[in-house]
Amino acid sequence: MFKTNAATNRKTHEIPVKVNETNPLNLRYPHRLNFYNKPPDSEITIEEFESWAIDRLKVLAEIENSASRNKSFEELKTTLNLRCKEHLQLNANSANNANHDQERRKDHYSHFILRLAFCRSEELRNRFVNAETQLFRYRLETDDSAARTAFVSRLGLDWKDATPEETIEARRVVTKDKKQPGEEGVYYKQQKDQSSIILQEFSTKLLQALEITSKHLPYMDEDSRLLPVLEHLSISFLAGISGSDFVTSTLNPDGGELTASMIDGLAKQHFPPCMKNLWILLRKDKHLKYGGRQQLNLFLKGIGLPIEEAIIFWRQAFCNITDDKFRKDYRYAVRHNYGLEGSRTNYQPKSCVTIITGSVGALESHGCPFKHFSQINLSQHLTQVYQIDPKSDLMKDIIEFKKNEHFHLACTAVWEHQHKSLGVKKGEGLGQGNQSLIPTDTMRPVIG
Question: How would you list the strands of the sheet with 159-161, edge to edge?
């Protein structure tokens, strides 16, 4: 049991540790636990900056996912045990063959890197504090008692172990979970209350630190190479990307992997009409009905957009809803299309035939424009989106193709017009009306 003096303010500064008493291994980081009161004081590489931050983000994302699935803390501990071994290992001082300082240095630096990413809004700050507090709780409860006691004593909290006589007194004044003051303003705390006090102290101090960082952020001289990394980290966290989904890609945007930030540029210049129409509506309405989401998401998957980037794309597109609603109502469907939920079926992009022959309701937006648009609406759409003159021979050809149900020929004609600046001439369109095509085939000349 422990006692605290109500009349004395608690101290939270760290007390220097004597190497010969509590740091027998002579470690730079003598404790597995950390309140992160002191910022890092040495340089790391840009690769370490990103990879360490992403490894920590994977662990924090698992904490958020467990909360959204209403898992108990005991279930979370099992998950964290696996995730931390993979990405954020922290061995006890008693562990053999462990590089304690290197593990704890990575933990220390990755925490402060994510502070820079998550101090930028109130929602980010609160979610980061909640996730970090749960991670700290896991470590606190799994630390051995001697190491825990040494760490707590170093925090400088204003308490001390109760004597046997004081323990007897405490039993008299403590009624269930309600504490009554003893003599001279002394409060007695049960052993189990120690964790809640420490966790409250941790979360309070972290939130205060994030608010301070947020105020000073505009004046920080951040390396320009780090800005996209920090933005990507925060967006990924808001999008609810799980640890298994996240991959390292932010430092190599030209490395061949498709990212969410590339989609708008590709859509404007290269998407086939059936997908460009959905993209336009998505950007205008900040929403798509189920059929449209399915058609576009499978297309994005087919052209090589990774799952973590797909989640970022849809989260940014659905900017009018809360993060909680996105996680509950839309994130699952995106992952399901990628074969990561439910039956884990590896769904393929819808073929042109499937899109053309599918049914489309009056208020729905998916389907094939050449099949499902009226002649008037199609003509207006082609004029507005592709700047095709309503009186041109090209427009006449497209309308004629529609009337004769040669929808693939109409699509090919638009594709040729869309890419004439790249040297594509009439008659050189992809597939020349081959009905075995899928919309992703139109992207091969662009992205390979």
Answer: 159-161, 2-5, 186-189
DSSP string, 28-40: SS--S-----S--
**In 156-192, which residue ranges form alpha helices assigned H by DSSP?**
164-173
The residue written with tokens 């006691």 in the block is 149
What is the structure's pLDDT at 436? 41
C-beta contacts of 158-163 below 8 A and 24+ residues apart: 158/4, 158/5, 158/8, 158/9, 158/10, 158/11, 159/2, 159/3, 159/4, 159/189, 160/2, 160/3, 161/1, 161/2, 162/1, 162/2, 162/3, 162/188
Distance CA(390)–CA(383), nearest Å, equals 7
Residue 2: CB atoms within 10 A of its CB come to 19
> In 101-123, which positions are buried (b, 16+ CB within 10 angstroms) versus exposed (e)?
eebbbbbbbbbebbbbbbbbeee
The tens digit of pLDDT for each residue in 58-108 reads: 899 889 878 766 789 999 999 999 999 999 999 988 888 889 999 999 999
Name the packing angle between helices 122-142 and 227-239 (round to 10°): 80
- DSSP assignment of 216-268 equals HGGGS---TTTHHHHHHHHHHHHHT--TTT----TT-TTSS---GGGHHHHHH
Report the DSSP beta bridge partners of residue 3.
160, 188
Phi and psi torsions of 3, nearest 5°: -130, 145
Q: Which two tokens stand for residue 220?
A: 């920080």
d(CA 260, CA 231): 13
Q: What's the CA gap between 448 and 441, in Å, rounded?
A: 10
Q: Encoding tokens for residue 426?
A: 């009439």
> Which residue positions in the chain have pLDDT lower than 50?
1-20, 175-178, 183-186, 188, 242-255, 431-436
Instruction: Parse the chain into domains and list their residue ranges.
Output: 2-236, 260-447
One-letter amino acid of 15: I
Please name the fold of domain 2-236. Transcription Elongation Factor S-II; Chain A (1.20.930)
Structure tokens at 260: 């969410």
Distance from chain centroid for Cα 313:
11
